[in-house]
Amino acid sequence: MTTPSTSNPAQKTTSWKSVTPFYGYAALSFLFLTILLLFSTDALKGHFFQPRILALTHLATLGWGTMIILGASHQLIPVMVDGSVYSERLARASFWVTGIGIPILVCSFWHFTTNWPMQLGAVLVLTGISIFLINVLMSIPANKPPSIQIYFLATAACWLFLTALAGALLAFNFTYPIFSRPHLHYLRLHAHMGLGGWFLLLVIGVGSRLIPMFMISKYTNDRLLWWVYGLINLSLILFITDGFITGISTRSFVYLLLGFSGVLLFANYCYKAWRKRIRKKLEVPMQFAMVAVGLLILPLIAASMLIFQILTENQFAIRLTIVYGSLFLLGWMTALILGMTFKTLPFIIWNKVYFGLTGKKAAPSPKDMVNARLLQWQMAFYFPALILFELGILFSNGYLIKSGASLFLLTAIVYNVNVGALLMHKIKPGSNK
Amino acid sequence: MTYISNNPGLAARAIESLKSVYDPELGLNVVDLGLIYQLDFDESNRTVYVQMTLTTRFCPMGDSITMGVRQAMEMAFLGYAIDLQLSFEPPWTSALISEEGKKQLGR
Question: How much is the pLDDT for A184?
């Protein structure tokens, strides 16, 4: 008898040990975020440049959004680049360094201690993100031409680094004046590097690969994706350069229009992928993802109104800024994460728990590991939460804000229970038949 | 079916067994998904050669699926060595899914 063999040109996926801590951290951050929202009604009715709003924003963008996207990125890099992650040790280092930096930074904003705690938090976050950037760039295979998805991934990681660098400089600027103009002038540039450059580019890059893959769609269109990539980057570069030199002007509408066009083209890409799908029934996580694509239109509409209000020096611009930011973070980004968590995490856990049992033991499918009833509750709490919360801020109504925040808290509790159950998933006794 | 074989009789037995191996994400067996490219048998050396693919080279479930295929073949052909080769030429496309598979995914 000859020796059995397996010729395997595919390579190992990223270990669950390097990925799941990011998911757990993000889930807890979301829970803390919703608790803090509940106690920040007055702050949410006021100006956006105040300690509590800065703390909430950084908890949402870093603790919730960035940490889960960093985790998912480490898992998805192999799918995106057709190669393994360069270093799992670096992946774990980026978790620990960023993960320690975030609470220090958020607490320093909340209590507005602008000296060493804020600087330490900012430097730790910048270091953790630099480690991630190095890991991404080193994971790109040098021996083949990069795909459009690799361009999205690498560019998004570069924008994240620039966001963190600008943030660190702004943190030091409180104590050691670095910039000549007021803080607010640079804050919007820092924010848009993160929102547009990091979140938007990364999600579009990953989505352009995963959405057709999950739906088994025959549709691909790299040319269209190149247009999306070009329009969004051009929009950001022009906005940031012009914003650095002058500020918001009528030209800002043109930059917004460029970015908006890119988003609409991507929405068209998703629609065509959906039309040509073989897998007809969309599961709840994918429904969340598709709704999130549509939700992205709302902050962009808010942005166009915001530019107009700023140019006409209307006080409403202050309130609209919070609406714009929260629609982006609690609307588009959160809807996407609430869905895609349960499309990515079950696979990681499945590989951890059931790997090697295929064909020998009865293993559930990854989607059956998610509590479907909790997922329905999550959906039932989340959408009314978003509507009430945004209306509350728009009309400066404390009751609506509190009602929305309470429903966000329920969403976060349900989400955490579902994520916690997945992270602790074990083989059921008696299933080894 | 898109696979080729030097022994259709034994291949039919292998296919029956491989239909118990599912892609956990899609809930579709590896045969109807079109992952099996070739099944050859060398009875003098008691070896089964399996050439198969994955839906993507870095499929997160790839190792688990290939292990499932190996185990299914070991059970179907006791005492045979299993020589399993992954191939990405041609790469998998949705056109390889069988009509039965498309029907299942369309529900």
Answer: 86
